[in-house]
Amino acid sequence: MSFELNAVPVLSRSVVDRAEEVRGDEQALRNGWSEAKLLRVTRRGQVRYSAGALLFDKAVELGAEPDPAAVFLGIDAGSHVWAVREDELSGEVADLRAMRAVDDRVAGLVTTAVALLNWHDHAGFHAADGSASTAVKGGWSRLSAGGKEEFPRIDPAVICLVHDGGDRVLLARQHTWPETLFSLLAGFVEAGESLERCVAREIREEVGVDVRDIHYLGSQPWPFPRSLMIGFEAVADPEQPLVFADGEIAEGYWFTRDEVRAALAEGDWSARREDRRLLLPGSISIARTIVESWAQG
């Protein structure tokens, strides 16, 4: 039995105007800088955050004109918004995974800021010729000394809910996760590979199961550090033995829909208790949205 997502994944709900037409207009960027808001982001993806709201500084604190190290996120409530890397932040801070509530505005601004700044941290030299590169267009591309342009890198990854076509779902746990935290199977797309082929390969490699009826569900940015998660469902035979051959998966089990519903009602993995057999991913992950959608039946 196929299903659809019952909601847009949290980090895909951005309502921020990305203002692509402004990025290449240096005069427009300068004009907006004087009243622009500045989001400071640590290398751990933390921002200043209090009572469900982001805390901004004034962009002019960096200087009278756009700072070369800052990235332009778009326009929010009529003001330009920029982000800049900060080693440490004082006061109340949180990353996306630690925020109690992530609204559409926060999702758009923080996800974009973290993804762009993560790219710049490792893009100081052009991949084609190794020459030093400079950020341009509000941080949305970089130019080498010879004028070669490079754009932010995104790593596509599939994530798939495997079910039996009825009331059982296959969930797995990685070695580094808490003992009762289980989630969907996922993996990066290889060169020359279609998304559907990647789904079949990754599931076969990780748990030794063959899948069929692969069906696209939706996608979500996941800037940890720069992924795009592409969600699928697929059907498998629960009688086929599970084989954890590639070493990524510690264990996996078929759970019933009732077991999953009970786990969802208990909250996510942060509500850890010794008596819980099944913990599920946090609310900002597409894995959570997919599991919730399947559990509704």
Characterization of the model:
With 297 residues, this protein is an alpha+beta fold. Strands 11, 12, 13, 14, 15 and 16 form a six-stranded mixed beta sheet that branches. The longest helix has 18 residues, at 104-121. α5 (257-265) packs across α6 (286-296). It has helices at residues 20-23, 26-33, 104-121, 195-207, 257-265, 286-296, and strands spanning 37-41, 47-50, 53-54, 57-58, 71-76, 79-85, 93-94, 133-136, 141-144, 149-150, 155-163, 168-174, 185-188, 211-222, 227-236, 249-256. The chain has two domains: 10-123, Nucleoside Triphosphate Pyrophosphohydrolase; 155-296, Nucleoside Triphosphate Pyrophosphohydrolase, CATH 3.90.79. Helices cover 21% and strands 30% of the residues.
Number of strands: 16
Please identify the top-level CATH class of the largest domain.
Alpha Beta
Considering DSSP H and I runs of 4 or more, what fraction of the residues is helical?
10-25%
Strand pairing plus helix content: what structural class?
alpha+beta
Uncertain ranges: none
* Name of the CATH homologous superfamily of the largest domain: Nucleoside Triphosphate Pyrophosphohydrolase
Q: Give the termini distance in whole angstroms.
A: 9 Å
Number of domains: 2
Main pleated sheet: 6 strands, mixed
Shape-level CATH architecture of the largest domain:
Alpha-Beta Complex
If you average the pLDDT, what whole number results? 94
Strand content: 25-35%
Based on Cα principal axes, name the global outline.
globular
InterPro entries: NAD-cap_RNA_hydrolase_NudC, NADH_PPase-like_N, NudC-like_C, NUDIX_hydrolase-like_dom_sf, NUDIX_hydrolase_CS, NUDIX_hydrolase_dom
Organism: Nocardia panacis
GO cellular component, one term: cytosol
EC number: 3.6.1.22
